[in-house]
UniProtKB/TrEMBL annotation:
It comes from the Eukaryota. InterPro entries: GIY-YIG_endonuc_sf. This is Monothiol glutaredoxin-S16. Residues 1-33 are annotated as: Disordered.
Length: 139
């Protein structure tokens, strides 16, 4: 599903631009002893197109966040192949896919991917103050 969207604010999680970080409450601990990996704000922002060619993304499982040309967060997803998911976003929604933050989740278990995705979603919700439509977390 490529329809999830989020509204822009001035935070680095909401925007690809550097901005002062507000202290965020810790994300809830994932279930089943699976810990989330890194934070959304800590992942590098990689342009989708460089010199007229699509950037290279890992052919590995991971979590990714898509930003538009105005550095507004559009979508947070998880994938078994990050490169294929980014290519699908670029093909389906080129105007909304300018840059991506991603993190490879070693092993790629469903639990590890879900824990990292939930942590990124919670971070975006806390900092941006809005929910990603179509992929909202249940309380």
């Amino acid at each position: 599903m490529l329809a999830g969207r989020i509204v822009h604010t001035s935070s680095p999680a909401c925007s690809g631009r550097a901005a002062a970080r507000r202290p965020a409450a810790p994300a809830p601990a994932p279930r089943r002893g699976v810990r989330a990996r890194g934070k959304l704000n800590d992942a590098a922002l990689v342009p989708v197109m460089e010199r007229g060619e699509m950037s290279q993304y890992p052919d590995a499982p991971g979590v990714y966040a898509v930003y538009n040309a105005n550095d507004e967060l559009q979508y947070i997803g998880l994938s078994r192949k990050v490169n294929a998911s980014v290519a699908a976003h670029m093909q389906s929604l080129p105007d909304l896919t300018a840059a991506v933050r991603f993190e490879v989740v070693e092993g790629g278990s469903k639990e590890a991917l879900t824990a990292t995705w939930k942590a990124w979603m919670e971070e975006a919700r806390e900092i941006c103050g809005v929910h990603v439509r179509g992929m909202a977390l249940r309380p």
